[in-house]
Amino acid sequence: MGGGGFGGVGKSDYICRRMSGVNPCRPGKVINRLMARFLRGIILTVVMVLAAASAIAAPGWEQVERMPGRVSEQTSQPDDVVTATSDGYLYIALRQRTEVKLFTILGQPLVQETLQPGVYRFRIVARGIYLLKVGSATRRITL
Description:
Layout: H1 11-20, H2 27-56, E1 62-64, E2 73-77, E3 81-86, E4 89-94, E5 98-104, E6 109-115, E7 118-123, E8 129-134, E9 137-142
Antiparallel strand pairs: 1-7, 2-3, 3-4, 4-7, 5-6, 5-8, 8-9
């Protein structure tokens, strides 16, 4: 009788039965289970990264009536541009048509638009340091 004391069953089959309950282990099933777990982990990670990326910023500038009453930081620049941050929004007041670009601190563009004179706000959910280029001037924005 083969199997060395395991009732005619090979030692690896006996161990697989003990580990898996009733069914003996089959290498193909174990690999399939591991691959399924791995792929679920990858898919979950991709979904979370995409959700975080979409939560960083809204798609564009929204025109508003005025600058907020309570402002965290306000800066006036020589080219008639006023910027402010408040409650997760970046506000900008322009006196003339200007190209506005917003980048992450790593240089990844978040938005690039040419805005008409007025007051605009941009929703930024993720706190951090951003670079705002208004016309030829570049400004560091901290939320």
